[in-house]
Amino acid sequence: MKTELKRQIIHILVGALYALIAYFLPKEQFFILLLAIFGTGSFLSYIQMKTNYFFFLQNLISTVERTREKHIPGRAALSFTLGILISSIVFYQFEKIILIGAIITLTFGDGFSAIIGNWIGKHKIFGNKTFEGTIGGIIAATIVLTFFFPIEIALPAAIFAMLAEYIPINDNYVIPIVSGLVLGFLI
Q1: For residues 187 and 179, what is the distance between their CA atoms, to the nearest angstrom?
Q2: What is the pLDDT of residues 41-56, one digit of tens each?
Q3: Rounded to an integer, what distance in angstroms lies between the CA atom of residue 25 and that of residue 108?
Q4: Residues 55, 45: Cα–Cα separation, whole Å
Q5: Are 85 and 170 in contact (CB under 8 A)?
Q6: What is the pTM of this model?
């Protein structure tokens, strides 16, 4: 299995787990859990970077990290969790379903846009991002969002979020914020 495909499968599985936990836990407990996961992950990353103490984790991490991320062990996972943590702060005052929608859009839209873009993407739009990947991300996010929102709300949230992926800021931060804002506006 190619590195990027493994990476995106982990992205989707972990994101689905975060969405499921957010669905069942009260907002306060979910926030505390995210903070604990991010803090623990940051600490372990720092220890690994300085000592290489967690050699067994290094093998796992090295099979899914991109070359430009290897200087900070677990950088992608930390960034993903931080994006959801920031979203939980931004959307704290809203109904919990807005945060769940933001997590879903990040999880499935971003994950499938990368998988489809790498698999069949031929028309590059910006950097490594392809037209096919963007459309695939929109479709995937819309499908999953329709379990929680009507199509007339799910589709625009997915479209704007996947277009926001082109903003030159880490997409783990931009996608959930944009999708949550659209969801909040349309509900």
Answers
A1: 12
A2: 999 888 887 786 666 5
A3: 21
A4: 12
A5: no
A6: 0.90
